[in-house]
Each structure stands twice: as structure tokens, then as C-alpha cells.
Amino acid sequence: MIRQPTEFTARERDILSLLAQGHNAIEIAADLNITTNYIYTIIRLLKARFNVKTCAGIISRAISEGIIDGEGVFLQGRQEQPSH
């Protein structure tokens, strides 16, 4: 199944939210008990999804598209997809 551009896995949501809250990859990995390499992979995928080159770009685009608010909280209407 191909996900729509505005659909995020639970893990993508967690990482995007923590990025928007100012956490770096090492902190996110520790908080979620996963490897930093996995965090970097998700960040790379989010950069491609939003067509940006930086984490700040991810956050800015997600806010401007109404996906998250300025505190990293996902706005209603965004459906969570199971992560695989």
C-alpha cells in the first residue's frame, strides 16, 4: 500500500514531533530506545518527503502544511499508519 504524503507511521510521527521540540538524533534515539542510524534514516526519508535539505526545513514545511503545530504536536485529521 502506498501511503499518502500526509500519512505518517507511528515512528515517523514520534521522530518528527521530537525534532520539532528541539531534540537531536542522539536524544531521540535514547528517548525511543532505537539506534541513531534508524533516526538518521527516518530523517533522510522525511527530508525527501518534504523536499528539503535540513531538519529545520522538515519542521518548517510540516508546520506550514498544517501537519504539526509549533510545539511538535500533530494536528487533528492526520491518520496514523502502523509502522512495519
Description:
It is globular and about 30 Å long. It has helices at 10-20, 25-32, 36-50, 55-64; strands at residues 8-9, 80-81. The protein contains 4 helices and 2 strands. Helix 1 (10-20) packs across helix 3, helix 2 crosses helix 3 (36-50) and helix 3 crosses helix 4 (55-64). The chain has a two-stranded parallel ribbon. The chain has one domain (9-75): Winged helix-like DNA-binding domain superfamily/Winged helix DNA-binding domain (Arc Repressor Mutant, subunit A, Orthogonal Bundle). It has 84 residues and is mainly alpha-helical.
Annotate the secondary structure layout:
Elements lengths: L7 E2 H11 L4 H8 L3 H15 L4 H10 L15 E2 L3
Parallel strand pairs: 1-2
Helix pairs in contact: 1-3, 2-3, 3-4
Short synopsis of the structure:
With 84 residues, this protein is mainly α.
Q: Residue ranges: pLDDT <50 for 5 or more in a row?
A: 78-82
From the 3D structure, determine the CATH topology: Arc Repressor Mutant, subunit A
Tally of helical segments: 4
The total of beta strands comes to 2
Bin the helical content.
40-55%
How many angstroms separate the termini? 12 Å
Oligomer: single chain
Q: What structural class do helix, strand and pairing data support?
A: mainly alpha
